[in-house]
Amino acid sequence: MKKLIDFLKENKISFEENVDGKRLCSFRVGGRAALVIKPADTAEIKALFGFLKNCEIRYILLGKGSNVVISDMGFDGAVILLSEIKSWSVDYDKLSIGAGASLSNAASVAQSFGLSGLEFAHGIPGSVGGGIYMNAGAYGGEICQVLSSCECYDTDTDEVVHLNNFDMGFAYRHSILQERKNLIVLRATFGLTVSDLREVRDRMDVLRAQRLEKQPLEYPSAGSTFKRPEGYFAAKLIDDAGLKGYTVGGAQVSDKHAGFVINRGGATASDIKQLVDYIQKTVKEKFNVSLECEIEFVE
Ligand SMILES: Cc1cc2nc3c(=O)[nH]c(=O)nc-3n(C[C@H](O)[C@H](O)[C@H](O)COP(=O)(O)OP(=O)(O)OC[C@H]3O[C@@H](n4cnc5c(N)ncnc54)[C@H](O)[C@@H]3O)c2cc1C
């Protein structure tokens, strides 16, 4: 780790040591991360991965941490954040934006140019890169409907590659990035529809109001805990299983929306994991439906 820190200092790559995991994930749980690195551009990313290739240090890539839970034991490697890679440009109906930008920012920029298509993404608290990784979606919209192409860094070959929508292998809450961890999204280009600026804003406002009304946004969470099982709704199954309000330590099945596990205060990563396991077991026993967890647990 010392060698990596020396390398980061020499190359003037921004980093922080011993960072509280609660700052890194939207659930506000987890132990400390040994190192958090924030490369500023592609050159720094290439240099960083060139170095990591030749050492044994574990690393994980995070966007906004809104779909991950950091272990209570912390993470003894390097957390790489692309938060500095967020510049954007608009060319007629195309928005090109850095992977570290928030989805909300991407939607707001599009709106300010009267471009429609990203309204659904406005309330999703993830990054553009994390949104592509998850094929994030809401209210009938999905990243796969608007992504034209993305620029990725391939850590195996040290090359920057351009992938089109088809290459991404999109499916419900799935992209090829989930299998090909060597691909890191650097930039995305969204193909949008020229529309009326106020109409786009109005649609965003309606969706925001729906989120506020239906979701327990006053508590830390990672959004919907489970993927939608084919033919069912996860929240309804959990509610029907009598689990609304069910609590393990500080983690609870939200009373407002049973699809959300929330941090009621003082939850640990272990509380969340135990609750997730209990929900899956109970729903399987009662309805013979397997709930697939959408959240990633970082050990
Ligand atoms: C209150 C709340 C509401 C939510 N609502 C929704 C919703 O409506 N719809 C929905 O789909 N999701 C929703 N989510 C979940 C979450 O916001 C999305 O899954 C989002 O896409 C995750 O993005 P992120 O940047 O936070 O990813 P992270 O949690 O940081 O990372 C998730 C995964 O993506 C990978 N990743 C991140 N950036 C990159 C990159 N540049 N290149 C390659 N891989 C990358 C990470 O390595 C990790 O494996 C919600 C979450 C919360 C807390």
Describe the structure concisely for a colleague.
Helix content is 29%, strand content 28%. It is α+β, with helices and mostly antiparallel strands and 299 residues long.
Terminal residue distance? 18 Å
* Helix content, binned percent: 25-40%
| Count of individual helical segments | 8
Mean pLDDT: 97
Bound molecules: flavin-adenine dinucleotide
CATH topology of the largest domain: Uridine Diphospho-n-acetylenolpyruvylglucosamine Reductase, domain 3
Beta fraction of the residues? 25-35%
Largest sheet: 5 strands, antiparallel
Uncertain regions spanning at least 5 consecutive residues:
none
Write down how many β-strands occur, each being a DSSP E stretch of 2 or more residues: 19
Tell me the number of structural domains.
Answer: 3
- Structural class by secondary-structure content: alpha+beta
Strand order of the largest sheet: 6-7-13-11-12
- What is the CATH architecture term of the largest domain? 2-Layer Sandwich
CATH class term of the largest domain: Alpha Beta
Return Rg in Å. Answer: 20 Å
Helix-strand sequence: HEEHEEEEEHEHEEHEEEEHEHEEEHE
Shape: globular
What does this structure look like?
The chain has 299 residues and is α+β, with helices and mostly antiparallel strands. The strands form six sheets. The chain has a five-stranded antiparallel beta sheet with strand order 6-7-13-11-12. A four-stranded mixed beta sheet has the order 1-2-5-3, covered by helices on one side. The chain is globular. It is built from eight helices and 19 strands. The chain has helices at 2-10, 42-53, 103-112, 128-134, 143-146, 197-214, 234-240, 269-287; strands at 14-20, 32-38, 59-62, 68-70, 75-81, 88-91, 94-98, 115-116, 137-138, 141-142, 147-154, 159-164, 183-191, 193-194, 221-224, 247-248, 251-253, 260-263, 296-298. It folds into three domains: 2-81, 2-Layer Sandwich (Uridine Diphospho-n-acetylenolpyruvylglucosamine Reductase, domain 2); 88-200, Uridine Diphospho-n-acetylenolpyruvylglucosamine Reductase, domain 3 (2-Layer Sandwich), CATH 3.30.465; 216-298, UDP-N-acetylenolpyruvoylglucosamine reductase, C-terminal domain (Uridine Diphospho-n-acetylenolpyruvylglucosamine Reductase, domain 1, Alpha-Beta Complex). Residues 26, 61-68, 82, 99, 124-127, 129-131, 133-134, 136-138, 177, 184-185, 217, 221-223, 296 line the site of flavin-adenine dinucleotide (FAD). Flavin-adenine dinucleotide is lined by residues 26, 61-68, 82, 99, 124-127, 129-131, 133-134, 136-138, 177, 184-185, 217, 221-223, 296.
